[in-house]
Every structure is written in C-alpha cells, then in structure tokens.
Amino acid sequence: MTATLKPRRSALYMPGSNARALEKARTIDADTLILDLEDAVAPDAKAVARTQVAEAVAARGFGHREVVVRINALTTPWGHDDVKALAAVKPDAILVPKVGSGEECQALSAALDDAGAAPSVGLWIMFETPQAVLNAATIGAAGGRLACIVAGTNDLVKEFRGRHTPGREGLLPHLTLLLAAARAHGLAALDGVYNDIPNTAGFEAACLQGAALGFDGKTLIHPSQVEGANRAFAPDEKELADARKILAAFELPENRNKGVITVDGRMVELLHAEIARGVVAMADAIAARAG
Fold first, then answer.
1. Domain coordinates in residue numbering, the chain
2. Does the global pTM surpass 0.90?
C-alpha cells in the first residue's frame, strides 16, 4: 500500500478520551487528524477512549480530513482490543507506536487482516526507537498495508539520550534514514512534533527544515500550529509559478524532444519537469481539498 497523492501538511493529535476535543476536531483545518488512544490517555481511561473514538470514526462527519487512530502497542493490555474495535469502523489508517522492524510491520498488517479491516485501512507506524533506526530499510520494505512512517522525535531524543536543540542536530541522521526508507518504497513520511507551542518562530523554522528535508508534513500537538504547518508544507506562489513555467516550456513544439532546455536563463532538465509536475499536482490537491 503506497502513498497516494494527498495533502498531509498538518497531522494533529487529538486525545481520544476527550469528547469535546473529538467534536472540535471536525472543525479544525488540519489535513489529517490522529485520534490518540496511546500517550494522551491514562490507563484507567483506555476503554472509554476506545469506545468514544470508535463511535466518532463510525459517525464520519470529519469532511476532507484524513482520520487516523493511534492505538496502543499490541504488547500492552489494550492493543488487540484497539485493533478489533477500530477495524470494524474503517478509519483511513491505524497508527502503531514504537515499531522496530519490518517483521513487526508485517505482523501488524496481518493483525488488521485477521480483525477484518477493510483493504482501505492503512498501517502507519511510529519511528521512535534505536531499533527502528537500525532497521529502517526492513521497515520501509515491509509492504502489506504500510503507508506512512511517522517520526517520534521526543522518543528518539529520549532513547538516544540526546538533547532538544533548535537545529535538531542530533535527530537529523535518524530523520534522514526514515525518509530514505519511506521514499525508497513510495511511503508517506511525517515529521515529529514541536513542543514549545508559544514559540511560533521556532515552530516555523522547524516546519521549514522538515519541508527542506523532504517530509510531507508535520505532526502537531495544538490546533494553533495547523495554519503554520499548512503554509510551510505547501508550494508557495513563486514555487508554483516556476513549476508551471517549466512545464509550459517543455510543452513548446521546439522543446518536446529535448532533455535539457533553458528557462529564464537557467538550465532545466527533465528531472526538473518531474519535480514541477509534483509541485503542481500537490497544489491542485490542496485546492481540491479546500473546495
């Protein structure tokens, strides 16, 4: 299950135990909603949260928003019940924490099959342990329902005994391996969260860094972060105009059989045309979603 072209600029975590938050989620302009049964839910609230989230997903009403549910790991007392409950209501995907190998990904796809999940239900996994970093290649190649790899940056910093820094220097090697695993196999890739909610300048810098690395979007912990992520991970007006100009230039009769042309004094190859097609396609997908 490879990634289809859809905007995933903003993926907002919402606590599954909070009924008001689940209702508010229907009005937030995020591309993706991650209804959380794991970190955001205390052990004594797991069963109630599972029921609330399953009912919310079954009721639909989330509009254009992609709906993903983060379940508890299958090694916990709640994981298998989460899979059974969610398989029946068909979210767009199920997100599983702390997956460390391709074999685990394959087992999770099989668990969804056994629970009767529809073929459309994708598997997303959290990339947040040293094991995941060491096994990035096997994770990307796992196949089955795997559709997206999500960076768990807080856990990566903790597990590697590192420190949070503005430039995320300690995380960059791990994020690069995640992206390589995703891109080699046509999977989506989402950057990790930004913790300092009031620091809008720092958040913007982190978004721009993630976009420059190649992530499709960013996971978020507060609705106030949605607008900034949507802006940072979308083509801006200049990028879109340049892309359209490149495509138009290659369509000119005198250029159709050429591999290299000049546009505004700049050498442009067919690979640039391929990039331009992706930029235009994403802009069109964002425009269609907004409509």
1. 10-232, 237-290
2. yes
